[in-house]
Input
Amino acid sequence: MNFAGTWSLVRLALRRDRILLPVWLIAFALILQSAVATFTKLYDTAQERAELAASVASNPTFEALYGPLYGDSTGAFLSWRYGTTIGVFAALMSLLIAVRHTRAEEETGRLELVRAGVVGRLAPLTSSLITVYLANLVLFALTAAITAGGGLDGAGSIAFAFQITVNGVVFGTLAGLTAQITESARFASGLAGLALGGCYLLRAVGDTGGPAWLSWLSPIGWALRLRPFEENAWWVLGLFAALTAVLLTGAYSLQRRRDFGAGLVAPRPGPATARPSLRTPLALAWRLQRGLLLGWVIGFVLLGAVFGGAANGVEDIFDSNPQLMEVLERLDQGSIIDIYMTMIMGITALIVSVYSIQATLRLRAEETGLLAEPVLATGVGRVKWAAGHLAFAVIGPAVLLLTAGAAMGLVYGAAVGDVGGQLTSSLRSSAVQLPAVWVLTGLAVALFGLAPRLAALAWAALVVFVLLGQLGPILQLDQWAMDLSPFTHVPAPSASTFDAAPLLWLLALAAALTTAGLTGLRRRDIASAG
Amino acid sequence: METAISMTDVHKHFGRTHALDGLDLSVRTGEVHGFLGPNGAGKSTTIRVLLGLLRADSGKATLLGGDPWRDATSLHRRLAYVSGDVTLWPALSGGEIIDLLGRLRGGLNVKRRQELIERFELDPRKKARTYSKGNRQKVGLIAALASDVELLLLDEPTSGLDPLMEAVFQECVNEERRAGRTVLLSSHILAEVESLCDRVSIIRKGRVVETGTLAELRHLTRTSITAELTAEPGDLAALPGVHDLRTEGAHVTFEVDTSRIDGALKALTAVGVRSLTSRPPTLEELFLRHYEDELKPGPAEDGASTS
Output
């Protein structure tokens, strides 16, 4: 009877996610479809593939970001370039869905009403995990169909589909477990997300000169070791099965033990009076946002350190290859280390944009959660209220980018005995990305102020920018399309022709968007209940 | 200043829903004004317009002599608001939230805060996520009542409070009245309204349909008449203000608008009366009449258009 009502809840979850899930899955399918088309069309001779493999092997940036390349077949390229990336995003999708239907429902109190019906104790957890597994099953089928349909080896396509979806299963299940720990849904998805980021970094260290066993500590590392299209190492799936079983056992035993609405630890009492400093909207925003920022800072220290460590091998390869040196000089973007740092920071900036949108949309969450109302009913004006949270959306990305830059510069600088020089150069690479990130902040503010119901479209904009950056060059898109993304306009900081004008334009755009959003906020209705 | 709140012909649409449809409301300085109406009648929308959270489509609203939209921030320093469903930041303690909201308003009476926490028996150290509905309301009430403000906007503030706490709340409102503060109290609890409010406005479908003291409102409703006549009456239904007439031979029961009672009684005595009982409307009937979905046309509505 513990499972009574599970299928009704699955249907409810699918009904609630009827837009969210298809958007994720269609985005994945589109990326895969164009990737398959690109790799089969552009690299169809063995020689072209061998050249590509050589250029990949020569740049440890790639290994750090995507993992090792295990061959020079079309399938091997596909798996190397997209297996980890889409796998990580599928894991992100899965953990968000798992928390959305378990702890988030419990925290808002909606699940109480549901559980009072003929619904078993374990039905909500079970149904949300089934929903996650169904989503991954569909992704599995899509992936296998797209790759096999593109003319790639059938068994390899299956292995590739596993590579992409196994971590969805693992991290979805993990989120089912973290949802049991505290009463907060934010904590549940934050902890699962931190685990995902940690596993990604473990693999990055293991794959770029660190101890190789580190990659074996990470399920993201395991997925790479499936070696789709090359070896199809099916036995690796056993690791996933075992890990999922352990996580499931943990999640269910915690769920059985705890009370409805409770976590593992009873919340401690807080202070009876507020500190004297808790008297402004900014101080309130600090209380609400500091945990999120701290989690991100920790993640970015690690990320910077890992990629700083990986930078060590870059120069060796180029020193031994005069032809590549020549290519570099023609590129005029500084030394190979400069290019490496610029590339890493380009990716870092995209990740930081996730934070900036998250921090901005907290405003919308506060508004729809009716938590803006009590503040706005006091002597606090709307702009002042918004500014408290926007301080995080504006200063936070700067803190994160500079943290990552500093960690990278320090680690690499210490390794090559030039801390001062490398720190300057890595901080410069991270600082040039800031205006582009702020454009995303501005866009989110503009949507929040002018079209609050569509505020979540800021995420869609970020996805489009990421796709433009990732797929644009491969698909050889026109420049105007590439120009849509603010990240296209970030100049290489070490080029001799460095031009700061685009940065000023991006800053002006971010400021204009923010101003428009705040103006809209001053004019519109504040959301009320229902 | 004579009037603390004045709204004239205020309209507010949400898409196709006409939430406020020419609302007129007047609250005098220093009075406790009851604000009644069925769910969805527009009470909360009215209060949110007064708070400047919503912008009225048309009409004029004045609050403490200012414009609730334009002067929102400065007006908010002079008022306190409690919603019917107080929402709190789950990770903050009740005490922290009381202090924060008070300070954001520009100050809090620390002595009164302590006194109210004791009277409402709130544990201020608990995290907001662990409070029950009633305790969340207490946090909102204490934060509002501990501020030195001129006006309290209370939107069903006692929902979820137990009867003991309801009594504490009524004491507090009476103290506010004695201190000369103005209170707009939206409520469904008739006993609360009857014991606290100087005047009452009833809102229905976005319009105030009646306003006045309870005695005045009673006058606007119907009285039940049961009479035993000496002969079969003529066509009593044709009399102005008579409703729900039932005649069994010489026995009649009907309801009559209180303002038209004189004419009805004259008609009965013209036939000849053997016995007669009349029952004035209870407060419940007074409100239920306005809460019912289909309002029959009658003098109550005439009263509304002239009030």
About this structure: Chain B has eleven helices and 13 strands. Chain B has two domains: 3-213, 218-306. The longest strand of chain B covers residues 3-14.
